[in-house]
Design goal:
Layout: H1 3-25, H2 32-58, H3 66-80, H4 93-118, H5 124-143, E1 153-154, E2 159-160, E3 169-170, H6 173-196, H7 198-208, H8 210-215, H9 220-246, E4 248-249, H10 256-269, H11 274-295, H12 299-313, H13 318-327
Length: 338
C-alpha cells in the first residue's frame, strides 16, 4: 500500500469512527421518543448496508430486496410467538435471529443459482425478476393464514436475551437503542472487512467488467452468488431487529414498496459506501416527515424526483460526495469509484 493510499485509509477510518461515536453519544441530546424512533431507523440502516453490498460493490441492482427483510421479520415473529411447526409454544429470540439469518440466506442462495447460473441475468433483467419475486412474495403472505394473511402477525415480543429460563427482555428505549446500534456496528465491521478484502476487490471487478474478470480466471457467478447470499442474511437480520421493536409484521414488509424505499435510501446516501448507505436510510426517514409537511400527499413524488436527479447528476449519492471529499487527502483528485 502506498503512503497516499494508507493516508486515505487512515482518514476514512477516523471519519467512520467519529460517526459511530456520534451515534453512541446521540441519546445524551435526544428525548426518549426520539431515541426510540432512531433505534427503529438503525434497523433500516442495516437493511441499506445489505443492499449497498450487492449494488455498490457487486453491480447487482435489486428491486425486490425487501423479500429478504420480510423473511427475516416473519422468521423472528414466528419464533418468538411460538408458532414454528413442531415447536409450538416454545419461544426463543436466539432461534429467531438464527432463522432470520438462515432463511433469507438459503432462499437467496437457491434463487441466485437460478438467476446467475441459469440465465445469467444481470442489470435491468435481474432488477425486473426481483421485482416480480417481491410482488409474488407479498401476495403469498397476504393470502397465507399461517402468517396472518393481510392482518399480519401482531404482539411480537421484544428481544429476550435471557438464558436458562431467565427473562431479559430489551424494550426500554435506551437499552434497545444501544443493542440495535451495537448490532449495526458489528454488521458494518463485518461487511467493511469483506469489501476491503481481496474478495471485495474481485466483487468490484465483477461490477466494473464481469467479462474481463471471468477472463482472468475468476468464477464471477460464484462471486455474485456469495455476495447475494450474505446480503440477504444481513437484510433478514435487519428485519428481525425491526419486528422485535415494532411488534408487528405484515405483507408490505416483504413487498415492492419497501424495496423501492431502500433503493432510494441507498442511492441518496451513496451506494459505493456502506456507511453512506446507512446514513442515507436514517436521514431520508427523518426527512420524510418534513417532506410530507411541505408537499402534502405529493411528498413521495418529491422523493422520487430527488432520487432520479441524484442518480443522474450525483452517482455517488448526496452523502457519498461529501464523504469522499472529507476522506480524500488534500490536493488528491478523486478519479475512481470508492
Amino acid at each position: 500500500m502506498t503512503l497516499s493510499a494508507q493516508f486515505f485509509a487512515d482518514r476514512r477510518n477516523r471519519t467512520d469512527a467519529l460517526i459511530w461515536v456520534g451515534f453512541l453519544a446521540l441519546p445524551l441530546v435526544l428525548g426518549e421518543w426520539e431515541v426510540t424512533q432512531i433505534a427503529q431507523y438503525l434497523t433500516y440502516g442495516i437493511f441499506a448496508m445489505s443492499l449497498a453490498l450487492i449494488w455498490g460493490h457487486c453491480g447487482l441492482m435489486s428491486f425486490g430486496h425487501a423479500v429478504f427483510f420480510g423473511l427475516g421479520a416473519y422468521a423472528m415473529s414466528l419464533s418468538t410467538l411460538g408458532m414454528l411447526p413442531g415447536l409450538e409454544g416454545w419461544t426463543s429470540s436466539y432461534l429467531g435471529i438464527a432463522l432470520a439469518l438462515a432463511v433469507p440466506a438459503v432462499f437467496a442462495n437457491l434463487l441466485g443459482r437460478f438467476l446467475f447460473y441459469g440465465r445469467g441475468l444481470q442489470g435491468a433483467q435481474l432488477a425486473i425478476v426481483m421485482l416480480a419475486v417481491a410482488v409474488i412474495a407479498e401476495r403469498l403472505m397476504a393470502r397465507w393464514p399461517y402468517t396472518g394473511g393481510m392482518n399480519g402477525l401482531m404482539s411480537v415480543p421484544p428481544v429476550n436475551l435471557g438464558v436458562f429460563g431467565a427473562d431479559i427482555e430489551i424494550f426500554d428505549p435506551l437499552p434497545l437503542y444501544y443493542l440495535t446500534l451495537f448490532a449495526a456496528i458489528a454488521v458494518y465491521i463485518i461487511l467493511e472487512s469483506l469489501v476491503r478484502s481481496r474478495r471485495g476487490v474481485v466483487m468490484r471487478a465483477v461490477a466494473s467488467d464481469e467479462a474481463r474478470t471471468a477472463f482472468l480466471g475468476y468464477d464471477t457467478r460464484a462471486v455474485k452468488l456469495s455476495a447475494f447470499t450474505i446480503s440477504a442474511a444481513v437484510a433478514g437480520f435487519a428485519g428481525a431487529l425491526f419486528v422485535a421493536q415494532f411488534g408487528f409484521v405484515s405483507p408490505p414488509l416483504i413487498g415492492f414498496g419497501l424495496s423501492t424505499e431502500v433503493l432510494i435510501w441507498v442511492a441518496l446516501g451513496g451506494r459505493h459506501g456502506l456507511l453512506t448507505a446507512f446514513l442515507g436510510a436514517i436521514i431520508v426517514r427523518l426527512a420524510e416527515n418534513t417532506l410530507a409537511d411541505l408537499l402534502g400527499p405529493a411528498w413521495l413524488l418529491g422523493l422520487g424526483l430527488l432520487f432520479v436527479l441524484c442518480v443522474i447528476f450525483l452517482p455517488r449519492g448526496l452523502l457519498g460526495e461529501i464523504y469522499t471529499r472529507l476522506t480524500l487527502p488534500r490536493g488528491t483528485a478523486d478519479t475512481g469509484q470508492r
